[in-house]
Structure formats: structure tokens, C-alpha cells
Amino acid sequence: MNVELTLPTRKDEDFRYSDIDALRTVWPVPREEIEVVAGLVESRQVIELGEGTVARHLDIRLGKGAKLDLRVLTAGPAYGRIAIDVRLAEGAGFTLGAAQIATGSETLEIVTEVTHAAPNATSRQVVRTVLAGHATGTYLGRVAVARGSDGTDAEQSVRAMLLDRTATANARPELEIYADDVKAAHGCAVGELDAMGLFYLMSRGLTPPQAKRLMLQAFIAEAFTGASGEAQLGQTALARLEAIL
Amino acid sequence: MSMLEISNLHATVVDKPILKGLSLTINAGEVHAIMGPNGAGKSTLGYTLGGRPGYEVTGGSVDFLGHDLLALEPHERAAAGLFLGFQYPVEIPGVSFVQFLREAANAQRKGRGQEPLSGGEFLKLAREKAGLLRMDMDMLKRPVNVGFSGGEKKRAEMVQMGILDPKLAILDETDSGLDIDALRICGEGINAIMRAPDKAVLLITHYQRLLDYVKPDFVHVLAGGRIVKSGGPELALALEEQGYEAVA
Q: Which of A195, A205, A222 sits opposite B104 (nearest CB)?
């Protein structure tokens, strides 16, 4: 296959902030199919800590009443893209807790498309991104609610923390709703560490890196709350946070 | 022995001069109270001594136990033995008091060249100080100040002071937001933790009521960025009765 014919460009909305040159080296990205059949409950983790380029594309189908708890931690790749497509059947439940930690000139992105194809499904996405140096961190998330998918409950909570003014965060939560009875919430914020909080911690004797690390640890932990490997995920993220402070 | 010596301190906040030549000496074993009208510069004094970013010293000097206090970072001031009790203690979601205070205590110990406290040693210390302030140990397992009432926050400040065991405590309106019982508990806590020959306290307050429990040796009136009047405990009573304008 000719890579150049199918390789996306930045005009493609889902690749608007991508590192296309890095993507070229791994294109085409194979789709990883995950199916949770009706009634089953599963949990999965995607942890990418290597250097270089990583691009993954998960194609998830949840059957009637099926539940999937997916946790993602990306920290380390020069370019890391995790694309997640999810299709929910009636009464299915999808939880995404994702954390991205980047420094230098790294570019990390999480791109989701969650389709509520039938009534009474729930989806909850929590994405936390910490960016230092000249890093770029992106979340593009579309929630589509099909006609007749009443009783949908969809939530997106997206926050990014910039440790340096030179870092860039992009966030675009999107809702496309064709049903009437839908609960959809999305929150999105990009900010810096609270200066008063840092001063409070330092006034008790913590060094500036200790104070920052403690606050960032808590910030990132929100993506892993309730996960089966919560403590381990937190420890892994902590090691990376310490490396970028 | 002089513990804190503030000489002709000038400080600005966002380019606005607030402290305009403040001088004050505090010796070991003493309790000082600073009172004054709103906007006099009381909290600015506390923050400036604590090293809060944005509080710029434009003149004067502060000697704290032989250290040039103003040259130290906030965490170095803490390690040197300074404690700042906040008027509005800050909420830090996701960070538990126990984790934060153990790290803080050990960071200070490291700064002083002491061995760190083990988990068991720290919990024993924390339990003892929480008991002193009648605070349930379970509250210290919660995120820092999150969901605490005003009074609980102030008691938690005093628990922190007990654990960190400073030489000098600067307590900024520790009495505000306290009910009568909490006021007494905090007052007794301050006495138990800080009333010692090698320690000192600077109370920043609007009212006489805290001074009923923590008896000051000296009372100062801060107005317009300077100490305009100093006296003994009777000065606080006169202020309460007659107001700042009449007395100072």
C-alpha cells in the first residue's frame, strides 16, 4: 500500500495536532479489535512508556449490558497517539481514565469517538494531561448519540496542566446528539498549578519540586480513580512526573 | 535572646506599598499580638515573613535566629523554624494531610540534617497533636482542608504547627471563623505547643477574645504599614473598648 495515499494530513480534523512525520513511520496503524460481549465486565490498560513513536487504534464494541473499564497512561514517546473508537449497545457502559505526561518537544494525543448506538448506555471519560517544556498534549473527543438512543448518559472531563508557558494543550470535546432524552456533560479546563496551593505546601517545608510533584500526583490520580490497578498506575505516573520536574 | 528582628521593613504588593518602615523585635519566650484596622498591612506582614511570591520587599531587613530571613525560600524558612498559620488555609484536592505532613516534616528534618521519621513515628506524633486539638485522626487522612469547616481548618493549622514544632509561629487571624469552643481549643493548643522558653508567637488578630486564652506579653497596633503604638496586654483591652482611632 502506498503510505502517502492514505496518510492523513493536518487538514483532517482528527489529525489536526498530530506529528505527521512521526506518524508516517508507523502508518498505516492497525486496528486492534476489542469486543466485550453482552453482559460481560472487563478492564484493560494501555500503558506506553517507551521512547520513539507509538500509534495505536483501538476499535471497541460493547454488547448489550457489557462494561469496559479502560485506563491509559502515555508518558515517554516523542509522538504518542492513542485513538479509541467505541460503540455501545443497549445498557452498555464505557469508562475511560487517561493520563498523558509529556516534556521536551513530545507530542501526545488521545482521540476518542464514542457512539451511543442504542438506549440507556453510559460513557464516562476522564483525561488528565501534564505538559512541560515545549510539549503538546491533545484530547479530541466526540460523543455521538444515535437517533432513538434515549436514556444516554455521557460525560467528558478534560483537564490539562501546563508547567511551562511554552507547552501547548489542545482540547476539543464534541457532542453530536440525535436523541431526545440524553444526559451529556462535558468539562474542559487548561491551567497552571495553583500558586497559593504551592506556597501553602512550601510554607510547611516542602521543596518546590516536592510541592509540585504532590499536586500533580493528585491531578493525575483523577484519571485512575477506581481502576483495578490504581496504585500501580499512580506509581508509574509518579516516576514519570518526577523525571520531568 | 532575640529571635526575630524586623528593621524598617518595606514591602509592596502589585507595586502598591503596604509595609512602610515596620520595625519589631521578638525575643524567645515571648508572645506578641499585632492588632490593627482592616488594610493596615497585618496579613501582608505575615505573608512577607513567610515568603509568599508577589510580596516584594523593597527595603529593610529581617533577622531570624541568625538567618537573613528574606534571602531564604519559603521551605527554607520553614526548616529554619518559622511557621505561618494561614487566615484562609488552602484546599489541596487529592493530597492527604498525612502524606503531605509526613513529607513536610521529613523535608524540614532533612534541611536540618536530622534523620527522617518512620511511618510509625510520624503517625504517633500526628495522633498526639491531633488529640491536643481534639481533632479526629480520620480527618487527617482526608485531602488537605477539603470539605473542612472554617473551624476545622484552623484546628488543622494548629495540628500542623504541633507536628512541625516551629521556633516561631506567626498566626494570621487564627481566631476568625471559630466558635467559642473551637476558640478555646485553639488557644489552649497554641499555649501547649508554643509556650516555651525557646519559642515565640506572633498573633495577628482583630479581636481581644483570642488574647483571653493566649496571654500576650506585648501588644502592637499596626496602622498605615507601621507599628504606631506598643504596650502590654492592657493595650488590647483599651483597643477593644475605644477603637483604633481613639487609642492609636
A: A205
